[in-house]
């Protein structure tokens, strides 16, 4: 055998050994552990979800151009418009009528024309008013029609319009001018020349229709801190209802429990030594009560949530799909998040799920605090949903979506990254069982869900809006409140209305009430409302007849009319309340979805109140009505500034119509009473301050649909639990090596302020 042959055999032997080693090293290892796995293709939408889509900036621009050229009046940009001008207040999508949409989605009908809803303030008219126009078709409008009378039964009076940023600026100028009439008082009380005081609005603005007089509360303003916790004791009442800014007046002044006709009178009382002044010292930013600056250097990083093989959900345009779920999402600039056409396994469960209103109602012994009933929709729940902070507001690797709006300007604005979508591991089993008798096994499934989230900052409070979709077919809706409490200056019997939380700060009691619209379509549009609850019956035991048993039994009832389905806040309600289809499941029960509310609301405003009808949705923890196209929302942005003659009164929706086999809507109120305390400083925490509701399948399926989840785990005493092929949990060690490629951290949330 020559040397050449030996070398060839040696090389072949080495190659064989190398191949065997590779096989041994890779045996049992899941192939392509870190390879990106795109989600299963569930999307057969073909752009149908765009029938609900929010307007694009380009569409908004086209609507503005059309209105400027076709209304025959001069329009001033709302960012600089005076009350005596005409201006475009806002432009949003006009969602088509449900019947049109369903013909398109389900019946093969034509796509409804795409239209916008434009709100205009006409101050430069003989009879100033607010007018709403539907403009279309988009993207190139050629028509507009006035829908104000159709929607509201008449023109909207001008005094009902929300206050614009320009109006607030003019009010601020007036207040600063008036404060300069009390220089010695301001220097003594606040070490201020007035320019460094923050001015906070209250609402509503008076006591009767037509009033536009607002109490403004003054606070020490230290840059980088929450001024809401530093009241100086000074509040002013400004009358600003006249079309001419020069005629606005400061009507009253409040300081430390006393009322004065003007700042001049306040100054005179101070100079005459007839005023008890509480001196407020200026503090450094880090020492201010509301400072959120870190007090310690960063520690080691906490847990990081990520998807080893990429997201398991898919987003296309305004639609997200995830493990059988399909949801169309959007944002109303006034009322906030709105979802449409929510389907599970191809079947529509909810046509519309939308936030309607957020009420914050305060108590205090100061005029600003005691008169405050904020209806946040009039300020802009969606408009003030700013950019989310990656890794804190939402998981770092979540998908972030921009939202666009046009309000108080002729130019669209973008809140970038202001809505996030992610899969969340709740670190809790969705279901599990360990069997220790007859046979030994374990079965379970992690509680993973898809989350759609936005966060609105409404003056001092931050509301976290969550919509969650579970593998069991359940929908969970939850809101958490955080941010700063609002406060009053502590004087007199202030603690009758809250707790002292600072040297001169009263944390004022208040309630948060939130309202949602849920248009359920359970196995079709026609549903009935069925309730179930328990009772006890005393029976003799059937085997001996000598003893008695208190036997629980089920009370079933079908509610026939709207009045029967209006459940007053904080009163007993059937524990099981379901939207039921006339069609049965495999076991003969109506296919249903159950509404389950988790709330600890405060007391609703007494119905004797002159403004109660404007928030009459708050009377009910749940009200079920027949769906009507002319009852699209439970409130109106115009209710805030004229709650005494509300533009929309929800109580009128409940008129005892039949609700059997009809297209029904559930209107749900959740909320909580908040009595601020020391631990609300600097911010209210989300722990314990979350409320919401569930939509849960109830005999809708023939079994729990999560049994089909590929994430299910089953271990038996007869198998090797460490085998990756048989147990996905055994695959985690190599999977955990798939460190995500994180994008660099960026934040541009201050750009649009």
UniProtKB/TrEMBL annotation:
Domain Copper amine oxidase N2-terminal: 73-143
Domain Copper amine oxidase catalytic, chain residue ranges per copy: 305-706
Cofactor note text: Contains 1 topaquinone per subunit.
Active-site residues per Swiss-Prot or TrEMBL entry: 376, 461
Pfam families, A to Z: Cu_amine_oxid, Cu_amine_oxidN2, Cu_amine_oxidN3
Enzyme class: oxidoreductase
Molecular function per GO: copper ion binding; primary methylamine oxidase activity; quinone binding
Region ranges (Disordered): 291-310
Family matches, as InterPro entries: Cu_Am_ox_TPQ-bd (IPR049948), Cu_amine_oxidase (IPR000269), Cu_amine_oxidase_C (IPR015798), Cu_amine_oxidase_C_sf (IPR036460), Cu_amine_oxidase_N-reg (IPR016182), Cu_amine_oxidase_N2 (IPR015800), Cu_amine_oxidase_N3 (IPR015802)
EC numbers: 1.4.3.-
GO BP, one annotated term: amine metabolic process
Cofactor(s) required, per the database record: Cu cation
Example of a GO cellular component annotation carried by this entry: plasma membrane
Alphabetical keyword list: Copper, Metal-binding, Oxidoreductase, TPQ
Residue ranges occupied by any Copper amine oxidase N3-terminal domain in the UniProt entry: 161-258
Domain of life: Eukaryota
Modified residues (2',4',5'-topaquinone): 461
Post-translational modification: Topaquinone (TPQ) is generated by copper-dependent autoxidation of a specific tyrosyl residue.
Stated family: Belongs to the copper/topaquinone oxidase family.
Name of the featured protein: Amine oxidase
Organism: Anhinga anhinga (Anhinga)
Gene: Aoc3
């Amino acid at each position: 055998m020559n040397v050449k042959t030996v070398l060839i055999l040696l090389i072949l032997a080495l190659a064989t050994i190398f191949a065997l080693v590779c096989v041994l090293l890779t045996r049992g290892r899941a192939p392509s552990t870190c390879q990106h796995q795109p989600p299963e293709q569930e999307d057969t939408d073909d752009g149908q979800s765009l029938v609900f889509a929010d307007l694009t900036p380009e569409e908004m621009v086209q609507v503005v151009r059309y209105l400027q050229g076709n209304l025959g009046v001069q329009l001033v940009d709302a960012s600089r418009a005076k009350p005596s001008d005409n201006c475009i207040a806002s432009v949003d999508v006009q969602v088509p009528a449900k019947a049109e949409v369903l013909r398109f989605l389900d019946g093969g009908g034509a796509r409804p024309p795409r239209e916008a809803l434009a709100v205009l303030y006409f101050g430069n008219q003989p009879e100033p008013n607010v007018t709403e126009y539907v403009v279309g078709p988009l993207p190139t409008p050629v028509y507009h029609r006035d829908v104000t009378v159709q929607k509201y039964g008449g023109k909207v009076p001008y005094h009902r319009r929300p206050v614009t940023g320009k109006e607030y600026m003019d009010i601020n100028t007036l207040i600063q001018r008036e404060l300069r009439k009390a220089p010695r008082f301001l220097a003594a009380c606040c070490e201020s020349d007035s320019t460094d005081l923050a001015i906070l609005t209250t609402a509503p603005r008076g006591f009767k229709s037509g009033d536009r007089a607002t109490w403004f509360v003054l606070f020490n303003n230290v840059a980088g801190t929450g001024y809401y916790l530093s009241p100086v004791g000074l509040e002013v009442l400004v009358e600003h209802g006249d079309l001419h800014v020069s005629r606005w007046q400061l009507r009253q002044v409040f300081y430390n429990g006393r009322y004065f006709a003007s700042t001049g009178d306040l100054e005179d009382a101070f100079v005459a030594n007839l005023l008890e002044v509480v001196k407020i010292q200026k503090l450094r930013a880090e020492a201010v009560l509301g400072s959120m600056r870190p007090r310690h250097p960063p520690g080691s990083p906490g847990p990081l949530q990520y998807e080893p093989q990429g997201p398991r959900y898919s987003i296309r345009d305004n639609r997200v799909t995830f493990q059988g779920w399909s949801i169309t999402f959007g944002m109303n600039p006034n009322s906030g998040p709105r979802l449409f056409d929510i389907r599970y396994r191809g079947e529509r469960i909810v046509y519309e799920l939308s936030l309607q209103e957020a009420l914050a109602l305060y108590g205090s012994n100061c005029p600003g605090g005691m008169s405050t009933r904020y209806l946040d929709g009039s300020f802009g729940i969606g408009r003030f949903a700013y950019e989310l902070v990656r890794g804190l507001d939402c998981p770092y690797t979540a998908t972030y979506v921009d939202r666009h709006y046009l309000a108080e300007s002729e130019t669209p604005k973008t809140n970038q990254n202001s809505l996030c979508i992610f899969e969340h591991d709740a670190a809790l089993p969705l279901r599990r069982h360990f069997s220790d008798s007859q046979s030994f096994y374990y079965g379970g499934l992690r509680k993973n869900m898809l989350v759609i989230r936005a966060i609105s900052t409404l003056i001092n409070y931050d509301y976290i809006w969550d919509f969650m979709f579970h593998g069991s077919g359940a929908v969970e809706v939850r809101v958490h409140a955080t941010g700063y409490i609002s406060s009053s200056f502590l004087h007199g019997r202030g603690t009758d209305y809250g707790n002292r939380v600072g040297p001169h700060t009263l944390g004022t009691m208040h309630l948060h009430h939130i309202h949602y619209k849920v248009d359920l379509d359970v196995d079709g549009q026609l549903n009935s409302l069925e309730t179930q609850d328990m009772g006890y019956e005393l029976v003799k035991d059937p085997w001996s007849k000598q003893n008695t048993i208190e036997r629980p039994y089920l009370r079933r009832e079908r509610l026939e009319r709207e009045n029967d389905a209006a459940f007053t806040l904080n009163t007993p309600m059937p524990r099981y309340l379901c939207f039921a289809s006339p069609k049965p499941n495999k076991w003969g029960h109506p296919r249903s979805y159950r509404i389950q509310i988790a709330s600890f609301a405060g007391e609703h405003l007494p119905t004797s109140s002159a403004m109660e009808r404007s928030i009459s949705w708050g009377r009910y923890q749940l009200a079920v009505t027949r769906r009507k196209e002319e009852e699209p929302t439970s409130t109106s942005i115009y209710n805030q500034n004229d709650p005494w003659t509300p533009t929309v009164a929800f109580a009128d929706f409940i008129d005892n119509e039949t609700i059997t086999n009809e297209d029904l809507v559930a209107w749900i109120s959740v909320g909580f009473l908040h009595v601020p305390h020391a631990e609300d400083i600097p911010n209210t925490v989300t722990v314990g301050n979350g409320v919401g509701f569930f939509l849960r399948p109830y005999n809708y399926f023939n079994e729990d649909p999560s049994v089909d989840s590929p994430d299910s785990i089953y271990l038996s005493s007869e198998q090797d639990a460490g085998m990756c092929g048989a147990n996905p949990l055994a695959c985690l060690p190599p999977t955990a090596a798939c460190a995500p490629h994180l994008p660099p951290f960026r934040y541009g949330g201050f750009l649009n302020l």
